[in-house]
Design a protein that fits this description.
By secondary structure, this protein is mainly alpha-helical. The chain has a single domain, classed as Orthogonal Bundle (Arc Repressor Mutant, subunit A). The chain is built from 6 helices and 3 strands, in the order ααβααββαα. Helix 3 crosses helix 4. The longest helix is centred in the N-terminal third of the chain and has 27 residues. The two termini are about 20 Å apart.
């Protein structure tokens, strides 16, 4: 069982360069958003989650709270993110996307999708279904591993 665990982890790690070049990098170089990659990643995380505390978002981005403070300040200044106090604990600052932030993420994703259509167009219908199912499976399993 432990050998299988190690093999699965190595296979997942070996996907990193391919995922980075195929899916992540195209988002980072999009002309739609002239933002550093850490700010983009913060927007992407906030786009798929409810408002997050600074601590939780820093953990999800694998950065320090001090680094996140600078990122959050820049995104608030740009109008993409808003800060609010947690009703249960006023010392906790929550970050969430503004309408402008949501529109920016949507525009960025739309632009990247259009740019990537020729690449994914190389797949036939069966392969597209297989890819979609694999993406759902990987997402579900990584969420389980992470939590």
């Amino acid at each position: 069982m432990e050998d299988m665990l190690r093999q699965c982890i190595r296979k997942a790690l070996n996907l990193t360069p391919l995922l980075r070049s195929t899916l992540i990098r195209p988002q980072e170089v999009s002309p739609v958003a002239d933002l550093p990659s850490t700010q983009l990643q913060a927007l992407f995380v906030l786009n798929v989650t409810p408002p997050l505390s600074m601590s939780v978002l820093a953990r999800k981005l694998a950065i320090s709270k001090q680094q996140l403070t600078k990122i959050a300040d820049a995104l608030v200044l740009r109008g993409c993110v808003s800060r609010s106090s947690d009703e249960k604990n006023r010392r906790v600052i929550l970050l969430s996307l503004t309408q402008e932030g949501k529109a920016l993420v949507r525009a960025l994703q739309d632009e990247v999708v259009e740019r990537m259509l020729p690449q994914f167009g190389r797949l036939d219908e069966t392969e597209l279904q297989e890819f979609s199912q694999a993406a759902d499976t990987i997402r579900r399993l990584l969420d389980k591993v992470k939590n």
